[in-house]
Amino acid sequence: MDRPNPPESPVAHGALVSQLSREIVQLHARLYGRGPTKARSYLQGDYAVCILEEIFTTAERTLIGAGSSQHVRETRAKFQEAVKEEFIDVVERITGRAVRVFLSQVDVEANLALEFFLFGEPGSS
């Protein structure tokens, strides 16, 4: 029988969520040359999600303005696939949980990214 994770205090949970947002923003800044200007993260029992706003570089915004939104989406998707282990490492280190699935999606019109991490079962590696 699976046991749920022990409850944590709201303060501890809030600190984890803040650290997750901060480090994902820093990772984006390092990898893309600029980070998002807004970030919100949510940490639930079996997943974490980060919503990042105002994510695009000057070059990407120029391409989007020139009608190349699909190119920007495809390039972001390929790049995220290439660096996914770095994102997974950050989340595993902060949460102490193994990430089973990492999904990254951008919305060009909304100028945001969604980073989704699905955890394995507690106690699994």
Structure summarized in a few sentences:
The chain is α+β, with helices and mostly antiparallel strands and 125 residues long. The chain is built from four helices and four strands.
Structure description:
46% of the residues lie in helices and 24% in strands. It has one domain: Threonyl-tRNA Synthetase, Chain A, domain 2, CATH 3.30.980. It is an alpha+beta fold. The protein has a 4-stranded antiparallel beta sheet. Helix 1 (10-32) packs antiparallel against helix 4 (84-95) and helix 2 runs antiparallel to helix 3. It has helices at residues 10-32, 58-65, 69-82, 84-95; strands spanning 38-43, 47-53, 99-107, 112-119. It is elongated. The chain contains 4 helices and 4 strands. The longest helix has 23 residues, at 10-32.
Question: What is the topological layout?
Answer:
Layout: H1 10-32, E1 38-43, E2 47-53, H2 58-65, H3 69-82, H4 84-95, E3 99-107, E4 112-119
Tell me, briefly, the overall form. elongated
Tell me the strand order in the biggest sheet: 1-2-4-3
- Category by helix and strand content: alpha+beta
Give me the Rg, rounded: 16 Å
Our estimate of the beta-strand percent is 15-25%
User: What fraction, in percent, of the residue positions are helical?
Assistant: 40-55%
Assembly status: single chain
Q: Using the coordinates above, name the CATH class.
A: Alpha Beta
Helix count equals 4
Q: How many structural domains are formed by the residues? A: 1
CATH fold name: Threonyl-tRNA Synthetase, Chain A, domain 2
Overall pLDDT score: 90
Please name the CATH architecture.
2-Layer Sandwich
